[in-house]
Write a structure and sequence with these properties.
It is built from seven helices and 15 strands. It is an alpha/beta fold. It has a single domain, classed as L-arginine/glycine Amidinotransferase, Chain A (5-stranded Propeller), CATH 3.75.10. The strands form five sheets. Strands 1-9-8-7 form a four-stranded mixed sheet. A hairpin with a 6-residue loop joins strand 7 and strand 8. Arginine binds next to loops.
């Protein structure tokens, strides 16, 4: 399959794309070693040493409890000393399920040297569980940050791929071939929205939440062509409160940072049930709800 960056190239109606089950498992990493210890995105500037560990633990635990109270299955692995960003476990792999039911993950090639050692722990976890553990084709030395940038369309064998800051466009050719899926690639243009999951949150097959200012016009046009309902988060909530780094596990409930009131209202009007949660300590490191878990099969 191919990579598409422009609406003129894309004319496959959604119903013609094979369906795919929704992911039903969550993996999370205990934040015992979470911290801001270096600066690799603009949100981390001025935050070194400012994380309140106790507060971070409480925020994280509440999130786990909320997921479990909704009946979601959450597995927790330990963080590692010296890897303060490992808690953002959407970034080290891209999980997949093949039409024959085989499950696996593609390993990331982290952009920042500080984060590269995180990947091995996820590799080991998934290998132990019997998943296929894949790396990008060997001729591909571009960066790739897993589900930070690569998002599955809800219920379809279609991948959305952000590129520009943490992931290179070239990566998606290999993924499209290896997974036999089309990839709709979107260039990111604002360093505060350095991962696709900071500016695009897929809610269901036809509905998406975005912060439009993070995209180039041709990317936005692709989004509007595929999704019949595009909810926009206001700039302030998207930039300061990571409103779009929300998480919709089941096409119905949306977990989102506290204080995103305008975004929450728009989600409710569109028929979603909004569940507010606190991730303030993690926002100091440049991440919120979506990147604090890995949704897989
Ligand atoms: N400090 C981490 C980094 O810059 C935060 C990652 C947040 N993850 C995300 N998917 N947005 O890599």
């Amino acid at each position: 399959m191919n990579v598409f960056t422009h609406i003129s190239e894309w004319n496959l109606p959604l119903p013609e794309i094979p369906s795919m089950p929704l992911a039903d498992r969550l993996l999370m990493v205990n934040p015992a070693f979470f911290d801001v210890a270096y600066v690799i995105n603009p949100h981390m500037e001025g935050q070194i040493g400012k994380v309140n560990r106790q507060k971070a633990n409480n925020e994280w635990q509440k999130l786990v409890d909320l997921y479990r109270s909704l009946g979601l299955s959450v597995e927790v692995i330990n963080g590692e000393q010296g890897l303060p960003d490992m808690v953002f476990c959407a970034n080290q792999t891209l999980p997949f399920i093949r039409p024959n039911g085989e499950k696996g993950v593609f390993c990331a090639q982290m952009h920042a040297p500080e984060r590269k050692p995180e990947v091995a722990f996820f590799k080991a976890y998934f290998a132990r569980k019997g998943y296929q553990v894949r790396t990008l084709p060997s001729d591909n030395d571009s960066d790739f940050e897993g589900m930070g940038d690569a998002l599955w369309h809800s219920g379809r064998r279609l991948l959305w791929g952000g590129y520009g800051f943490r992931t290179g466009l070239e990566v998606y050719k290999g993924l499209a071939q290896a997974l036999d899926v089309p990839v709709l690639a979107l260039e990111l243009c604002d360093p505060e929205f350095y991962h696709l999951d900071t500016c695009m949150c897929i809610l269901d097959e036809s509905c998406v939440l975005v912060y439009p200012g993070a995209f180039q016009p041709q990317g936005l046009a692709l989004i509007r062509k595929v999704f019949s309902r595009v909810i926009e988060a206001p700039e302030d909530e998207a930039r300061r409160l990571f409103a779009v780094n929300a998480f919709c596990p089941n096409q119905k409930h949306v977990f989102i940072q506290n204080g995103c009131s305008e975004t929450a209202m728009r989600l409710q009007l569109a028929g979603f049930m909004v569940i507010s949660c606190e991730t303030g300590e993690f926002i100091k490191a440049g991440g919120s709800v979506f990147c604090m878990k890995l949704h897989h099969w």
